[in-house]
Predict the 3D structure of the following.
Amino acid sequence: MSQTPAPARATTGRNLVWLLASLFLAFCVWFIATLERDPVSERIFRNVPILFTETDGLILTSQSRESATVTVRAPQTTLSRLVLDDILVQANLHGLGPGEHSVTLQSSVTRNAIPDTAPRSIFVHLEPLLERDVPVSVEVTLPLPRGFEIGSAGPQPLESSVRVSGPQHLVEEVVAARLPLNLSQRRNDFRDELRLQAVNADGNNVTGVTLAPAMMQVDVPVRTRSDIRQISVQPNILADTLPEGYTLSSVTYNPQVVLVSGAPEALDKAPDTLFTEAISLEGRNSSFEVQTHVITGEEDLFVFGGQGISVSIGITPLLTSRQFDQTAVEYIGLAEDRVVSLSPETVTVLITGALNALGDMSASDLHVLVDLQELAEGSHSVIPDVSHSLDTDDIENISILPSGIDVTISAANPGSGAGADVGDGA
């Protein structure tokens, strides 16, 4: 068998060394070029939530931290694409027993990167998980309105007990699951679904535990008390005492029903509507409010709590319209060296207002005025004002026909004596 000569083997060895050296040199060149094109950088991610693994039969009751800060080292292109969801920080609780433990945090990144977590470890407290059944109790937080009561069967929850679970020391505090009932707006039987509350022996809520189910249906019978009856109320307004020229515009009162107590036989005979004390309108010419009481008409019937009735009565004047024709147009504010011409010199005035006020009104109570104080020489169109002796509350509307007055102002002839400060167009 022939052997390779020694010089040939030496040549082959040298060639292999040169090949390996060339490959290493090429790798170094590629690595340096890559670093220059995409340099390695760091990016800090704060408030990364810590994921706690579950433990059989134990529950995590407290931990020194719920989040961590992760510094990620990677090429710049990788860092630019990283988001918070790409980072996972875990605290492995498997195999730990009850009590306090120091747990090392483990972090990972979904992309090619190196994470560093701060803090490196946290303290946790584990407690045995306890489950047990507790009875359901119903508590009325706000009672029924007066005159109503809960039926003899009482509130009926769908289940008599629920399962409470959580840390052992908290579950041991729970004595019942409470259903709070607000009955303040209830007057008939009803069914509702309410959220259960875990309570201790003092009736205080216990937080940090879970109730299953969390909601429960309850049926509550509601009935009217036999010794109390709800009866409608009507104000006894003496409308014929209202002064002439006025009308009733509104009547509101509160409450509109009252609770009347008495013997069942007397309540059965009571009318469906009770009246208040008489309310006289004599001398009333505007809206007013009065407090009054209900009259039962029977000695053995009583309004529950002596409840009073607040009555608001709206009174408005009857309206009428008056027309005043050929009312002279007067002017004020004319300079002494000027004269004025008005067209038209008389107008028609239409007034709508209270009957009592307009009934006694005459043309002499009205004045139609145009103010010339700011007007220069020339022609102008002026909207006149109406002055009157009536109370403004008695006037609904005033119209002038025509609505505008043509005013021509010119210089007065010397020695004419024209240009009085106040005058009329006649």
In short: The mean pLDDT is 85. The chain has five helices and 32 strands. The radius of gyration is 49 Å.
